[in-house]
Amino acid sequence: MDNEIQPEEKKGFRAFLERKNIEISLKRYGIDALGAMALGLFGSLLIGTIFKAIGLIPHLEFFAQIGGYAQSVSGAAMAVAIAFALKAPPFVMYSSAAVGYAANTLGGAGGPLAVLIIAIVAVEFGKAVSKETKVDILVTPFVTIFVGGGLSILVAPYIGILVGYLSSFISWAMTCQPLIMGIIVSVVIGIALTLPISSAAICQALMLSGAGAGENAEGLALAGGAAIAGCCAQMVGFAVMSFKENGVGGLVSQGLGTSMIQMPNIIKNPRIWIPPTLASAITGPLATCVFKLMMYDVPINSGMGTCGLLGPIGLIIGWFGGEYPGTVTAFDWIGLALVCFVLPAVLSLIFCEILRKVGWIKENDLRLD
User: Which of 132, 198, 317, 335 gets the highest tally of CB atoms within 10 A of its CB?
Assistant: First the structure.
């Protein structure tokens, strides 16, 4: 009997999930939610950092106050953005702000990762009960906040501990093997930037910055520099490689926007991804071993590359307004220019021309529609 009823039960449950727009998939959670979380970070933590940087200018201290308020709501902003990406009803979305605040606060170093995981669970539970009762005004926020708040208390601190261990490992590995780790971090984060996921959110979740990192500061700061190198290599590389096909518009949209718009072309011909990836494998260790570019601004900037120039700007803010332990010299500025702009362009062009000559990259392979 049970075996006969089971298919109907599954069908009913699937119909319920479909009616509630609950889609359990890697795309919904690993791409849509993660990308939205990054936008929440942009609209709070990142813009707040920019305001605080402006506040360093004499007589403009009130900008720093505004920036502090913006940064303080980053947890809530991330959760609301995730709820929006999950297509949550308005009441669930509003309630998720409390969930994000709790998860980010209790998650410590792993706050953003805790927000991502806990907000997804809380929002989906909230969606499940939304408008199912006549007292929706009580039930929906109660369930959303109870699930999210409970998980924040029970789970978020352990996520923070886990991220702390992972960050310590990255710091230790970067300090011991800056050459190898420079290549790995640069290539992996650079690839993440071009994929339809958020490299900025990953860097924030892994705390790839020396700011507030204590004894792990140098290693994580170097990891942040390598991440910037990889992201810049992808964006600048694709921008200059495709200049023949896309002109100035393509140069700006990729160089200051995102290399993600090349994904349809990468799917058609994955070999076009080789030049900027090879460039990142070179600029990453140069950043860690030669120029020692270290990120001491908010970690999200480590995954931004040249998008709005926020990667290089993050380095500069860290130098002058953060906890950067050294004196900024001409060598630092030369390193920034070479790693973030010059070498990605030159190396990607060289590798691209080689692949064009051997027939791996053909005319219009990089053309944007």
Answer: 198
Question: Where do the domains of the chain lie?
Answer: 2-154, 161-357
DSSP 275-337: HHHHHHHHHHHIIIIIS-----S-GGGGGTTTGGGHHHHHHHHHHHHS---S---HHHHHHHH
Q: What share of the chain is helix, strand, coil (3-state, %, to 5)?
A: 80, 0, 20
280 vs 22, 163, 208, 346, CA distance in Å? 38, 25, 17, 12
Six-digit token string for 313: 């700007």
pLDDT(178) > 90: yes
Residues with Cβ within 8 Å of residue 154, at least 6 apart in sequence? none
> With helix as H, strand as E and coil as C, how does 98-142 read?
HHHHHHHHHCHHHHHHHHHHHHHHHHHHHHHHCCCCCCHHHHHHH
* C-alpha separations of 341 from 234, 311, 333 in Å: 11, 11, 12
Cα separation, 234 vs 225, in Å, equals 15
What's the gap between Cα 170 and its chain centre? 17
What is the Cα–Cα distance from 209 to 220, expressed in whole angstroms? 5
pLDDT digits (tens, 9 = 90+) for 159-176: 999 988 988 999 999 999
Residue 91: count other Cβ atoms within 10 Å of its Cβ. 17
Distance CA 24, CA 43 (A): 27
Distance CA 71, CA 177 (A): 34
What length is written for the chain? 369
Closest CA to 86 of 9, 12, 148: 148
pTM of the model: 0.80
